[in-house]
Amino acid sequence: MKMQARALRVNCSLAQKAWGKLARTSLSALRELTTAFGVSVALGDIQLIDGRWYITHAGLLRIAQRRRCHGIRSSLQKDLSNQSSNQWVFKATVYKTPGSKGFVGYGDSNPSNTSPLVRGAEMRVAETRAVNRALRKAYGIGLCSVEELGSLSAPYRSQTEPPHSIGHPRSNGSNNGQPRLRDQLCLLIRQHNLDPSLVKAYAADFCGTATLKEASRDLVESFISKLATTAKNDRDGLLCKLNSYAQPTEVKL
């Protein structure tokens, strides 16, 4: 009980450091998830996006390991896949015990429902989504997984389609299948442990606007792509760049 109480305190503390002051419903849900599944905010088991909790692939695997999952089998569904168009469908089966009949989940992926950040890796994304769905069924996890989120995908847009402002409802909504750029940016910030305020300042400067909301979708997409590449290949350089946007602290004598 003491360990569980400590885990609750740590998760709540880290969550509020990462995402700011949480709503009472979000904190309550976090407590339930910590108690039921032993998720860890520090290990990246869950993510908070638009006020909702989502489980991650890593989190699902850790839950399966703790529950002594017997095995996971995945297979490509060739009849439903098309290599020329990068359309992939996988079937995954989770066996909780040696005699289990298995819990089945399917996952699909193509260039229209994956982020440009993983372009060319559609096959791996499809397998991950299938495994995630099977694991969620097997262990009764009602949360959608981050990897399954359509809002974190960036569908192809024709070159003739006019750009939209990130502040416009169409640019950050899902009514027309457009991606939520804010979600993509927030995910990168959490993945690479970056300072959100400094990233926003850098983004506005990159886009040449006073605030990020005033930037066009195309500029924001370019910034997200640059941020992802730099964070992966030159994190130290990125941190130096971000620190240049920090406000000087007044020293009180």
Oligomer classification: single chain
By CATH reckoning, the class of the largest domain would read Alpha Beta
Estimate the global geometry from the Cα principal axes: flat
State the secondary-structure class. Answer: alpha+beta
Number of domains: 3
Question: Based on DSSP secondary structure assignment, what is the total number of beta strands?
Answer: 5
Strand arrangement in the largest pleated sheet: 3-4-5
Q: Largest sheet, described in full?
A: 3 strands, antiparallel
Mean model confidence by pLDDT: 82
Strand percentage lies at 5-15%
Give the proportion of residues in helices.
Answer: 40-55%
Radius of gyration: 20 Å
Question: What attributes characterize this protein structure?
Answer:
8 helices; alpha+beta; 3 domains; 253 residues; Double Stranded RNA Binding Domain; 5 strands
